[in-house]
Amino acid sequence: MQHHGDRLSHIVDKLSDSEMGLEDLTRGIFEHRKLESNNLLAGLSEIVAHVEVLEDLGDVEVIDGVRIVSTGQRNHLEFINGLVG
Questions:
Q1: Which residues 6+ apart lie within 8 Å of 29 measured at CB?
Q2: Closest among 51, 58, 57, 53 to 20, alpha carbons compared
Q3: Which helix (H) or strand (E) holds 69?
Q4: Which of 12, 14, 18 is nearest to 55 (CA)?
Q5: Which end of the chain, N or C, is surrounded by fewer C-beta atoms within 10 Å?
């Protein structure tokens, strides 16, 4: 569970300076890996799932279905702490 909390925080941190598209965000999160073909698809899928959680919690907004922006909130921290409690 801590891995998911860390991943959520990493995404919010990446978005703290500027909005990003899904592919740029994915490549930024997995910058230490070569993402091509199936690896890129798997990475995109993982980031989408995490972005959906962050959006539900109010930590990010998806603008026009394309750009992802941080709201400045970090509600995911309390959410994860509640799960691992």
A1: 7, 10, 11, 14, 43, 47
A2: 51
A3: strand 67-70
A4: 12
A5: C
* DSSP conformation class of 68: E
pLDDT tens figures, 29-52: 998 777 777 788 999 999 999 999
Class of domain 2-84: mainly alpha
Q: Which residue has the tokens 């709201």?
A: 71
Query: pLDDT digit string (tens) for 4-15?
Result: 899 999 999 999
Single-letter amino acid, residue 68: I
Q: Which of 28, 4, 16, 14 is nearest to 80 (CA)?
A: 4
Token duo for residue 21: 């598209």
